[in-house]
User: Fold this.
Amino acid sequence: MKTNSVVAVSLTLLLTAAFGLAQVSADRVTAKVPHEFTAAGKLLPAGQYSFTYDADKRFVTIRGAGNEPGVIVPVVTLLAGAMHTTANDAHVVFDKVGNNYYLSEIWIPGIDGIALLTTKEKHEHEIVNVPR
Assistant:
């Protein structure tokens, strides 16, 4: 019984430390976006954002550092893992059209890429890597 308690406490401490330091959780990525961008038709300023994926409802909620309401973006499709260079990679991808940035994809470790926008016009990708 004592051994089980020690194992449970050790596991709890280990998990708390891991999640406390990481910027990626099972369904969320937090990234510092260096430019303003458009998501779901709303222009958002540069800054720190969390991007939370709801697989059941198939949308991503974007929240800034303040208390403003979140922006909900529907998922277009899931993407194969081609952008992941390792299983721990996390990215936020923007389509750049002219001087405008549009949230395009979210990549969370352990989940296929999440496409939020399909830009048909000529564009470049800007990838914001999320440190672990």
Notes: DSSP finds one helix and eleven strands in the chain. The first helix runs from residue 2 to 21.
